[in-house]
Design a protein that fits this description.
The structure holds 2 protein chains of 2 kinds. Helices cover 0% and strands 53% of the residues of chain A. By secondary structure, chain A is mainly β. In chain A, strands 2, 4, 5, 6, 9, 10 and 11 form a 7-stranded mixed sheet that branches. Classes of the chains: A mainly beta, B mainly beta.
Amino acid sequence: GAVVSQHPSWVICKSGTSVKIECRSLDFQATTMFWYRQFPKQSLMLMATSNEGSKATYEQGVEKDKFLINHASLTLSTLTVTSAHPEDSSFYICSARVRTGRYEQYFGPGTRLTVT
Amino acid sequence: QKEVEQDPGPLSVPEGAIVSLNCTYSNSAFQYFMWYRQYSRKGPELLMYTYSSGNKEDGRFTAQVDKSSKYISLFIRDSQPSDSATYLCAMSQGNQGGKLIFGQGTELSVKP
């Protein structure tokens, strides 16, 4: 149980375009989802916390107008990278909490974004 | 000073060795402790989840938490080449919306 999927797993886009990444909880309802960014050989950097039906909470230094997060249902959250630039190239990973009172997160397989 | 410190390694051991991975932390409010395994270009996989101090065992893995020393460990017995990965410790206070604070990760290589 506690499976999280992400789509696409790999995407290349041109500078100035927007890219949407989907995160789904497959066998549970996730009231809270998280979006991370990871650079090579580095740990996970939390970008934002997403609660179903409410606005996402962004970490300091993360541009909310550039990284749009929508948690439309208990099984789906999306991250849209708007007007992407080469410096946005990274590995983006989502995670989900199974329920309140438990603090472990289950992670998706990640999406590798390359902006040319 | 980072809230969570973890030696990035790399750590190289022969197959069958006992591996010890550790993290120290500075925030005494952390109550929930996790270990994740991450293979290259994949998302992290939850290995162990513990609450407060004590030991927890699952197969070849044992997690230890010593809150008095602000120190957590993960032991891997009879290590296998398939255990080669980066191991991340993570912690939560149990509030702040469930935010996790991660260590830098230790890169482990188990040689056949």
